[in-house]
Write a structure and sequence with these properties.
Elements lengths: L7 H8 L3 H8 L9 H14 L5 H8 L4 E6 L10 H12 L3 E6 L4 H13 L4 E12 L10 E8 L6 E4 L1 H14 L5 E6 L4 H16 L9 E4 L3 H12 L7 E4 L2 H13 L9 E6 L2 H4 L7 E4 L2 H13 L8 E4 L3 E2 L10
Parallel strand pairs: 1-2, 1-3, 3-4, 4-5, 5-11, 6-7, 6-8, 8-9, 9-10
Antiparallel strand pairs: 10-12
Amino acid sequence: MRASRPTMTDVAKAAGVSQTTVSFVLNNRADANIPQETRARIHKAVADLGYRENAMAQALRLGKSNLIGLVTDEVATTPYAGLIIRGAQDAAWKYNRILTLVNTDCRADLESKAVEALLKHQVEGLMFATMYHHEISLPAGLGDIPVALVNCFDAGALVPSVVPDEVRGGYDATRYLIEHGHRDIGFLNKSDRIPAAAGRFEGYRLAMEEASLPVRDDRVLRLVGEQEAGFQGALQLMQQPDPPTALFCFNDRVAMGAYMALQRLGLHVPDDVSIIGFDNQEVIAAHLLPGLTTMQLPHYEMGCWGVDRLLGDAPASGNRVLLPCPLVERGSVAAPAR
């Protein structure tokens, strides 16, 4: 039979003091004039008995729990977006806070229940994080608790949020190909109406126009799907009479399909065609042959920012922060062969 948990009464009895004195010492009451020797006896009794105060009761009494709530759609089940969780957890430890995570599998009913449960546990702030960059609707009943959005934003931009700088990422990816001598660059984009597709295309357009290169309609494809779409899209571009010398792919899965298409055509990366991706999904990008040069989504940094924003260290200016997408160089880009 398991022994019962020690209580504050047990601590008081072992230390030879009142429960009130124990409470004052454990809660570091500055106005309590308690001798150091008495404090030492109480802490020794706590250690000897293995006493731990009920966290829920402490949260209710103090009005805070040292918990940060993180509500996600699918982030916890996605290997590369999971860096959001790691960043948030590392930042929470910096503040001596615990990160409490709920993954809702994109179910609105679970999201509402998760928020209600976290609020009952007196979390000090709530973060909402999504697997991909898009607009979300916040659940009702949040009250005045601090909220931060990670990899997403609300319609009115009323809540502080952090997202990738998609335009700059698209610009930097295209500019990298231009700096390697490419003047004819195809873009395998997605047809989805999402910020990433619009932003990356805008960055591509800006880089091409800055270099006085034409943005040709026949060089920009808007795909439905990822790997298979990348395969078919690359076949379409590379079978044109005068094909591009480089391909900018919306993400690494599209790039993987493009690799397969080039192999089918007897072409080699980067000797015949250079390819650059986006996202840096390492399970793909690092293991293609050659390794895929790609743009890194700042998942870890966004997770850190979310906690910093809740607890006061992140800049408060502006409600939407854009974080850069660093270039990860591998072996898929070289000077054009022709």
